[in-house]
Amino acid sequence: MVLGPGESYLISPSTPHVLAVLNDKPGRGLVVAAPSAFARLIEATGTVDETEPIDMALFDRIPAEIGDEILAPPRTLPCA
After folding, report:
1. The model scores a pTM over 0.70
2. Each residue's pLDDT tens digit, 41-67
């Protein structure tokens, strides 16, 4: 599913998915998640500076604590 400005999409629980910006313009989104443990993952692992290295130990630990399963490393897109 490719979304444009102002569009939305509901991702059902337990559905494997990836979110990505597919051009060189900044992307912004509003994520509403329930239960809100997902917010802990974003708060702990999110970064404003994408040139910083990803703390993979942290990225592995937080999802395990909140019951999420990470299917691929951050910044990985599925094959087209």
Report:
1. no
2. 878 877 667 787 778 888 888 888 888
Higher pLDDT, 80 or 14: 14
Map tokens 């087209």 to a residue. 80
Cα-based angle 49, 52, 58 (whole degrees, multiple of 5): 110
The Cα–Cα gap between 70 and 17 comes to: 10
Which of these, 2, 6, 7, lies nearest to 21 by C-alpha position? Answer: 2
Q: Where are the alpha helices (DSSP H) in the chain?
A: 37-45, 56-66
Residue with the two structure tokens 């989104």: 29
